[in-house]
Design brief:
The structure holds two protein chains of two kinds. Chain A is α+β, with helices and mostly antiparallel strands. Chain A is built from 14 helices and 20 strands. Chain A has a seven-stranded antiparallel beta sheet with strand order 14-20-19-18-17-16-15, with no helix packed on it. In chain A, strands 5-6-1-7 form a four-stranded antiparallel beta sheet. Chain A is elongated and about 100 Å long. Chain B has six helices and ten strands. Chain B starts with a helix and ends in a 6-residue tail after the last strand. The mean pLDDT of chain B is about 90. Chain B is globular and about 55 Å long. In chain B, about 35% of the residues lie in helices and about 30% in strands. The chains are: A alpha+beta, B alpha/beta. The interface between A and B is large, with 58 and 61 residues. Strand 12 of chain A pairs antiparallel with strand 5 of chain B, so a sheet runs across the interface.
C-alpha cells in the first residue's frame, strides 16, 4: 500500500491532514512513541439522548424501563432519579413507591445503538479510528478514539479533550473523558480516577496511576470483581503484587489480559486495536469554523478553498485522486457527505469542483457546520496530460476532453450508467457483452471479435418475448406464420439457423437456434427456438435488408 | 422582392438556430441517391438530425441510425461516439457487424428525458465526440432549437431516434427522416430539410433505387 511520507515529523496515522494551524503546533508530538487513546464514558447516554429535548420534564426524575415476561424494570435512571434511590435493575413498582411521579419511557436499545454509531461517525472529525466500547453497563455508552498523531490539529491533547468534552456537553451528553496509552487504562481512568485528578495520563505513568483504583476498573465481569473483593483484593495494586501464574490459575487468562491492558504492560497478547470507522486516508484536509456555517451557498466557496490544498498534497507525491469525499460535521453531532469519482487520476481543482457542483445541493448545513473535511480515499499515480508538450497531439486534448465528459456524466447520473460494452467469449447473445463503467475501465478492445457469420440485431430485448406459432415451419425451420405483439407475421424469408450453445457445463439445456425472419411487410425479427422446450421467442429486431451502401 | 424574401429566410433560419452550410463540414451518408439530394452531398455536421420510426417492431430507423453512426465515426477517426437512451439494450456484436466499433461507443443509460437532455448537451459541449445519438420521444420546439444551437456551436452532430407520432410537431432539426420496412427492403422519407429538397427512396435488396 502506498503511504505518504510526512515531512514535518508527526509520523502519526493522519499525517496528510494539514490544518490552517501553524506547523509548529505539531512539534509537541515528536519523540513521543506509542499510542494515545482517548476514552469517553457517557454514563447516562440512553437517558441523555432520549430526554434532552424535554425541557418541561426538568423537574421530574426520568427513567427508561423494559417489559419482559410480565415483569417491568428500570434499565436506566437519570441523576435525579438515582439520587432518590432509583437504580437500574429495580422493579418499576418499587421505583414508583419511592417516587410516584417518576417519568418513564420504554427503552429502545436498537435506537440507542444507532445514535451511538452516529456519534462515533461524528467523532471522525478528530480521527478515523473510533471504536465503540463494548464493556458498558445498562444505559451507558463509551467510545475510544485513537488520536495518535492527530492531537496537534486540535490544540494539543488537553485542547482536544476539552473540545470533545465541551461538544458532548452541548449535545446534552453527561461525559467523563480520559487520555492514556491503551484503551484499558483510558477506560479505567475515565471512570474511576479521583475527582481532583487530571484526565490525561502521560506515557509511562498509567501503571502507577491505576494502582489505587478498585478492581472494577479492569473491565472484568461483576462476578469476578465480587470474588476478588471477598478475597480481600480490592485494588489493582493488590492484584499487581501477586505472581502471574497464581492469578492465571485461580481466575483464568482473562483477568491477566485485562490487567495487562490497563497497566500498559509491554508485549501483552491483546493490543486491542481500534478499527477505523471509515477507511483512513493519507490525503485529507479540513477546515474548522469559529462561527458555524449556516447557508448552503457557503459550501462551494469553502470547497474551492480546500481543493487546492488537497491537490497540492497530491502533487507533492505525484498522485491524483480517483475518489474524493467531502464531509460536513454539523454542530448537532451529525455528519453528511458527498463523494465523486474520476475516470483517471485527477488533481485539477477546477475540474474537481465542477464534479462536486451538482452534489453540493444535496448537502444540508442545518443546523450549522463547524468542520468541513475533504479526503481522497483513492488515489493513483498522476499521468500528466501531454497536450501542451506534444506538437502533433490533438488526440491528447480530445482524450482529456473525453475523460472530463465521462467524469461529469458519471458523477451526475451514476458511475454504472456511463459505460462501454466489453466483449465476452460466450455464445448466448445476452452474455456476449457486459457493461463496464467508463469511470473504472478504459475503452474495451473488440479487435479480436470474429466477423458475424449470420444476421444480427442491433438491439436485444432484455427478456425474449414468446410468439404463438400459427403455422409451423418444416423441421427445425422458423414458423411460416406466428402471432407476436397482437400482429400476425407471415414469413417471407428466413436466414438460419444460427445455433448458440450455453457454457459447456450447461450442456444442451440452454442451446437455441436463431433465425432472422423477414415478414411479408419487410420487418425483420430475430426469432429463436429453445432446443430444450421447442418454444419460439423474439429476442430482437433486425434492420431490414438492403444492398450495402 | 426576391432580396427581401431571401433576407427573411435567413432571419428565420437564424431565429431557428440554423446557419446555411457555407464552410460547414459534410458527412456523406454513403447512399448515392441520398447524397445527391442533400445540399453539399451529405448530412451537415454540427447539426440536429431526426430519424422517425413508425413502429418499435420495425428495425429500419435503427438500421439507418447505426449506418449513419458508422459514417460519422469514420469521418472522425480516433473520436468516440455517444449513445444516450432510457433503454440499455444495444447489442454490441450486432453494432459491430453494422460497422460501428463498440470500443469507440460510450453508452449512457438515462432514467428521464431530463437526464437525456443533460447528456446530449454535455456530450455536444465536451468537444470530445464524433457524434451524439439518442432515443427520445417528446421534444418541444424550444428544446429542439436549444439542441440545434448547441450542436451548431460545438460542431458536433446530434442524431435523435424518435417515434413517428412526433413527426407532426415542429422541430428545429436540419433534416427529419422517416424510415420503415417495406416488402423487399425498406423505405426512407426525407420529409423536412432546411436547405434542400425532400424526397422518398426505397432501399431494396439487390435493387438500389426504384
Amino acid at each position: 500500500m502506498f503511504m505518504n511520507v510526512d515531512v514535518s515529523g508527526g509520523g502519526g496515522p493522519f499525517p496528510g491532514l494539514l490544518d490552517d494551524a501553524p506547523l509548529g503546533a505539531r512539534s509537541g508530538l515528536s519523540g513521543r512513541p506509542g499510542r494515545r487513546i482517548a476514552a469517553a464514558w457517557l454514563r447516562n447516554f440512553s437517558i441523555n439522548i432520549r430526554f434532552k429535548s424535554f425541557h418541561n420534564l426538568k423537574e421530574n426524575p426520568v427513567a427508561l424501563i423494559r417489559h419482559e415476561a410480565g415483569r417491568s424494570w428500570i434499565v436506566a435512571a437519570d441523576s435525579r432519579a438515582q439520587a432518590l434511590g432509583i437504580a437500574p435493575g429495580q422493579a418499576v413498582a418499587d421505583a414508583r413507591a419511592l417516587y410516584p411521579h417518576l417519568v418513564t419511557e420504554e427503552a429502545d436499545p436498537a435506537r440507542d445503538r444507532r445514535m451511538l454509531e452516529r456519534l462515533a461517525d461524528w467523532c471522525g472529525r478528530y480521527t478515523p479510528w473510533v471504536g465503540i466500547d463494548a464493556a458498558v453497563g445498562p444505559g451507558e455508552a463509551g467510545l475510544f478514539l485513537d488520536i495518535t498523531g492527530s492531537a496537534h490539529l486540535r490544540g494539543g491533547e488537553a485542547g482536544l479533550l476539552a473540545d470533545l468534552a465541551r461538544r458532548f456537553a452541548r449535545f446534552g451528553l453527561e461525559n467523563r473523558l480520559s487520555l492514556a496509552e491503551t484503551p484499558g487504562s483510558a477506560w479505567a481512568w475515565a471512570r474511576f480516577r479521583p475527582a481532583e485528578a487530571p484526565p490525561i495520563l502521560a506515557p509511562g505513568t498509567a501503571a502507577m496511576a491505576l494502582r489505587p483504583l478498585p478492581v472494577e476498573a479492569l473491565r472484568i465481569p461483576a462476578a469476578t470483581a465480587e470474588t476478588l473483593r471477598r478475597l480481600g483484593l480490592r485494588r489493582i495494586a493488590d492484584l499487581a503484587a501477586l505472581p502471574r501464574p497464581a492469578l492465571a490459575a485461580r481466575f483464568g487468562a482473562e483477568l491477566l489480559r485485562r490487567l495487562d491492558q490497563a497497566l500498559v504492560r509491554a508485549g501483552e497478547p491483546a493490543a486491542e486495536p481500534i478499527a477505523p470507522r471509515r477507511p483512513p486516508t493519507w490525503y485529507a484536509v479540513h477546515r474548522d469554523f469559529a462561527e458555524p456555517l449556516m447557508v448552503p451557498a457557503a459550501l462551494a466557496p469553502s470547497l474551492a478553498r480546500l481543493l487546492p490544498r488537497l491537490c497540492r498534497l497530491l502533487e507533492r507525491d505525484g498522485r491524483g485522486a480517483r475518489r474524493l469525499v467531502f464531509t460536513l460535521y454539523r454542530i448537532d453531532g451529525t455528519t453528511a457527505s458527498a463523494a465523486i469519482g474520476t475516470s483517471r487520476a485527477a488533481r485539477d481543482p477546477a475540474h474537481l469542483a465542477k464534479l462536486f457542483a451538482p452534489k453540493l445541493e444535496t448537502l444540508d448545513p442545518d443546523p450549522g457546520i463547524e468542520t468541513l473535511a475533504l479526503e481522497a480515499p483513492e488515489t493513483a499515480p498522476f499521468v500528466a496530460d501531454q497536450s501542451g508538450l506534444m506538437a502533433a497531439g490533438p488526440e491528447r486534448g480530445e482524450d482529456a476532453a473525453l475523460t472530463a465528459l465521462i467524469d461529469r456524466l458519471a458523477n451526475r447520473l451514476g458511475a454504472e450508467r456511463v459505460f462501454y460494452l466489453a466483449p465476452r467469449t460466450l455464445h448466448l447473445p445476452e452474455r456476449q457483452s457486459r457493461s463496464v463503467s467508463a469511470l473504472a475501465a478504459p475503452a474495451p478492445d473488440w479487435s479480436a471479435w470474429p466477423a458475424a457469420a449470420a444476421p444480427l440485431p442491433l438491439r436485444l430485448f432484455a427478456t425474449p418475448e414468446p410468439v404463438d406459432v400459427l403455422e409451423p415451419g418444416a423441421g427445425i425451420e422458423a414458423p411460416q406464420a406466428f402471432l407476436w405483439r397482437g400482429r400476425i407475421h407471415r414469413r417471407a424469408r428466413a436466414d438460419g439457423p444460427d445455433r448458440r450453445l450455453g457454457a459447456w457445463w450447461q450442456g444442451e439445456m440452454m442451446a437455441r437456434d436463431y433465425w432472422a425472419v423477414t415478414d411479408s411487410a419487410g420487418r425483420r425479427l430475430w426469432l429463436c427456438r429453445k432446443l430444450a422446450t421447442g418454444r419460439w421467442l423474439v429476442h430482437g429486431i433486425l434492420a431490414p435488408e438492403s444492398e450495402a451502401a | 422582392m426576391i432580396a427581401m424574401l431571401k433576407d427573411l429566410r435567413e432571419r428565420i433560419a437564424q431565429i431557428e438556430g440554423f446557419s446555411p452550410p457555407q464552410t460547414a463540414r459534410i458527412c456523406p451518408t454513403g447512399y448515392e441517391a441520398l447524397d445527391g439530394a442533400l445540399p453539399g452531398g451529405g448530412l451537415l455536421q454540427g447539426a440536429l438530425h431526426e430519424i422517425h420510426s413508425p413502429d418499435p417492431a420495425d428495425g429500419a430507423a435503427m438500421g439507418f441510425a447505426a449506418h449513419l453512426l458508422g459514417r460519422f465515426m469514420a469521418a472522425m477517426p480516433g473520436r468516440t461516439a455517444l449513445w444516450a437512451s432510457c433503454r440499455a439494450d444495444l447489442f454490441a456484436p450486432g453494432l459491430r457487424a453494422a460497422g460501428v466499433d463498440p470500443a469507440r461507443l460510450l453508452a449512457v443509460h438515462c432514467r428521464s428525458a431530463e437526464e437525456l437532455l443533460f447528456t446530449f448537451e454535455e456530450g455536444l459541449r465536451s468537444n470530445a465526440l464524433a457524434v451524439v445519438f439518442g432515443d427520445i420521444g417528446e421534444v418541444d420546439f424550444g428544446l429542439s432549437r436549444r439542441l440545434q444551437l448547441a450542436a451548431a456551436g460545438a460542431g458536433t452532430s446530434l442524431i435523435l431516434l424518435r417515434p413517428a407520432r412526433f413527426a407532426a410537431e415542429p422541430s428545429a432539426a436540419v433534416t427529419r427522416w422517416r424510415a420503415e420496412a417495406c416488402p423487399g427492403g425498406w423505405s426512407l422519407t426525407l420529409f423536412r430539410s432546411r436547405s434542400g429538397r425532400t424526397g422518398h427512396w426505397r432501399m431494396l435488396r439487390n435493387v438500389h433505387e426504384c
